[in-house]
């Protein structure tokens, strides 16, 4: 048996493969994970990036879950061991046969062959749930909007795209709350970057005012140096300050107001992009896109910062 194991190990290592850069984007339902991921894939190009959603690893379809004492947020409702196995394979450059969950119909469908490219972006409810999954990633992000913002997003998405009524969405949010508290929110403490899209605290802005972003940059990875560009002049719409995380640890807090003018945003974007070196060209002009042609400067800077970390990890 040891001889057979050695033969298998030799066969696996005969053809060396390049290890991709792995990014996790975790968060509760309707926190903007897919919007953030789509922008990154578009900026990198589909030939260089692979994205998957770990919500595809649900054990049960929507009809079966109605009879269960827990929701899709509970680890017991997901094939966590298979998620761990597949993330390890992707992190070492190996393909996987990923299950597929159709959010429109609530059914499990035909699995999909996934080949890892230079960058693998993994989004979903539980990508940072276990020690083993966390070990697969180079960069980790947690999306943390206020509950009232997330509620609005979820109602809009689930009624327009998934066939739910408003009352059904609100009832499901209430049912999921204990599991959000127990399994989703604890992943926040494992993230290198915590992103919060929200109205500016203390301001009574009218409806429709673009959301601002607060990015908590933890010292678990090396972030681009923004002190120089943000200390020059009076940049009230974009600023960086030292803050305390919820557990008391010091973090850099980057604030990007929703009304930040494009010219101010461009200065910060170029400051981030230039730290990658002289051969990277200009920042992608596809960043920050919402539905249609609307652009969000907070979203654009968030996506650019993540692009910086993905490209920096290749060097």
Automatic annotation (TrEMBL):
<dbReference type="Pfam" id="PF00485">
    <property type="entry name" value="PRK"/>
</dbReference>
<dbReference type="InterPro" id="IPR006083">
    <property type="entry name" value="PRK/URK"/>
</dbReference>
<feature type="domain" description="Phosphoribulokinase/uridine kinase">
    <location>
        <begin position="23"/>
        <end position="198"/>
    </location>
</feature>
<protein>
    <submittedName>
        <fullName>Phosphoribulokinase</fullName>
        <ecNumber>2.7.1.19</ecNumber>
    </submittedName>
</protein>
<keyword id="KW-0808">Transferase</keyword>
<dbReference type="GO" id="GO:0008974">
    <property type="term" value="F:phosphoribulokinase activity"/>
</dbReference>
<dbReference type="InterPro" id="IPR027417">
    <property type="entry name" value="P-loop_NTPase"/>
</dbReference>
């Amino acid at each position: 048996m040891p001889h057979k194991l050695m033969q298998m190990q030799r066969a696996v290592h005969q053809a060396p493969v390049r290890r991709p850069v792995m990014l996790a984007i975790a968060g509760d339902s309707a926190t903007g994970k897919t919007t953030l991921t789509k922008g990154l894939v578009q900026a990198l190009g589909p030939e260089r990036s692979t994205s998957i959603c770990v919500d595809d690893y649900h054990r049960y379809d929507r009809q079966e879950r109605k009879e269960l004492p827990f929701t899709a947020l509970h680890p017991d409702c997901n094939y966590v061991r298979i998620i761990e196995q597949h993330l390890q394979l992707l992190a070492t450059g190996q393909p996987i046969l990923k299950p597929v969950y159709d959010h429109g119909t609530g059914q499990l469908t035909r699995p999909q062959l996934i080949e890892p490219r230079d960058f693998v972006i993994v989004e979903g409810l539980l990508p940072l749930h276990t020690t083993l999954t966390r070990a697969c990633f180079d960069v980790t992000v947690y999306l943390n909007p206020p509950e009232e913002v997330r509620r609005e997003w979820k109602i809009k998405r689930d009624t327009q795209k998934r066939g739910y009524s408003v009352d059904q969405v609100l009832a499901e949010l209430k049912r999921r709350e204990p599991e959000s508290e127990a399994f989703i929110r604890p992943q926040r403490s494992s993230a290198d970057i915590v992103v919060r899209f929200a109205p500016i605290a203390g301001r009574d802005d009218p409806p429709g005012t673009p959301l601002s972003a607060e990015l908590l940059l933890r010292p678990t990875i090396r972030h681009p140096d923004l002190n120089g560009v943000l200390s020059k002049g009076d940049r009230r719409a974009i600023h960086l300050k030292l803050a305390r995380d919820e557990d008391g640890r010091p973090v850099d807090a980057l604030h990007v107001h929703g009304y930040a003018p494009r010219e101010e945003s461009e200065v910060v974007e170029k400051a981030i992009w230039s730290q990658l070196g002289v051969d990277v060209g200009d920042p992608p002009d596809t960043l920050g896109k919402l539905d249609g042609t609307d652009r969000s400067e907070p979203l654009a800077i968030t996506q650019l910062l993540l692009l910086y970390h993905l490209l920096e990890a290749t060097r």
